Amino acid sequence: MLEIWGRSTLKGHVQISGAKNSALAIMAGALLCPEDCRLRNVPSLMDVQRMAQILAALGLKMEQHGDVLDINGRDIQQSQAPYELVSQLRASFFAIGPLLARLGVARVPLPGGCAIGARPVDLHVRGLQAMGADVQIEHGMVHAYVSGSNPRLKGAKIYLDYPSVGATETLMMAATLADGETTIENAAQEPEVTDLANFCQAMGARIRGAGTNTIIIDGVKSLHSVEYSIIPDRIEAGTFLVAGAITHSELSLSPIIPDHLTAAIAKLRAIGAKVILESPTCVRVIGANSHVATDIETLPYPGFPTDMQAQFMALLTLSEGDSVITETVFENRLRHVAELNRMGADIRVKGNIAIVRGVPMLSGAPVVATDLRASAALVLAGLAANGKTTIEGLQHLDRGYDNLVGKLQNVGARLQRLKGDKEAESESASLNTANLGG
Ligand code: EPU
């Protein structure tokens, strides 16, 4: 549980960690490589630890020192990912692409739905089938294999019905070792997809067009060892930008990649906060005395990210006027509304639309986090609210924010984990030193 006393002014500098969603995809990508992979700027997160456990269960060797993760995938001993682990981390399904490409067979449990939506994997499966894989789904397990004496996927033309981040990543990884050329049309353009493509290219993969809606991959026979640094987390950076605005404070953040924050910065400026790019890797936010309403619609990149919707909703609860927030990416990602309303916000929901009427003040209250970004939104609301807020469900926060509490404390926020949560703290601290095993 987290206890926050609101209304402190924040001041100082925040160090942004490596991107969670890049790290998870790139760790899956390490399955493609029969040699050493050294990853730098790996964030210290429960999700990263879980992905490491899944790779270890498949037989990869791993060692982590600080933000450096060494992975060796010479001997993949297993083609089957364990259900207990996959069910806790949806992103681990993305391992199906590289496993199939490398071994010609992969068995990965269906990840199931989660707090923000049903999240099917049909686009991943159809893409793999287009590349010549046989796919059977039985007893909750996806069993994919390539028949024949030379079990190699074949290049194909794939059109995605929706620019799914995960499906683009799965298929791009699978195509790196396929026979011939693969084209992914209507591909996701998120920076994490480009980061994964850059990582694969650094291992010798031949990929063009990542970051656009058409990605072309020329399959190669094998990949080689690599040392690669993960991009900064644009969602963590966006969360701290909102923290500066909602507390009417001044914060600087680095490292960042400004282009990755275009949509969030545009909305902050529309709301009335000042955002100044101080250098190509550093941004400063200065919250205004009062902010104004704005409308937000979540969209695939470069549109406004769904992963920032909850945090901006917290800010808009205190911005003068009516804001309309439309969530188009996930069907159940407005569960934080009820909790924000408990803190005095005035939000009504109709389907996937939330109408936020700005109120002068939020009041601290006990609330429950329902998912990762919802928990960040509640922290932000707690920082701005009068009095004390307690947030339950901190395991969501630990999944995806690297030391959020410590980083906020460093810039003057008054918040602390309550006793009983020490276990989670020491668990995530152990990430820094653990040999994650073979
Ligand atoms: N979808 C399908 N079929 C598929 C795949 C996706 O219908 O086969 C639907 C999903 O149900 C969803 C939409 O497409 O409604 C978008 O899903 P997408 O596949 O793009 O999302 P994802 O790859 O599962 C990643 C991030 C999410 C982020 C989304 C959208 C990772 C590990 N996760 O998920 O991050 O919200 O892209 O940008 O990369 C988070 O960090 O809090 C988080 C949820």
UniProtKB/TrEMBL annotation:
Keywords: Cell cycle, Cell division, Cell shape, Cell wall biogenesis/degradation, Cytoplasm, Peptidoglycan synthesis, Pyruvate, Transferase
Function: Cell wall formation. Adds enolpyruvyl to UDP-N-acetylglucosamine.
Protein name listed in UniProt: UDP-N-acetylglucosamine 1-carboxyvinyltransferase
GO CC terms of this entry: cytoplasm
Pathway of action: Cell wall biogenesis; peptidoglycan biosynthesis
Gene designation per UniProt: murA
Organism of derivation: Aerosakkonema funiforme FACHB-1375
Chain positions recorded as phosphoenolpyruvate binding sites: 20-21
Subcellular location: Cytoplasm
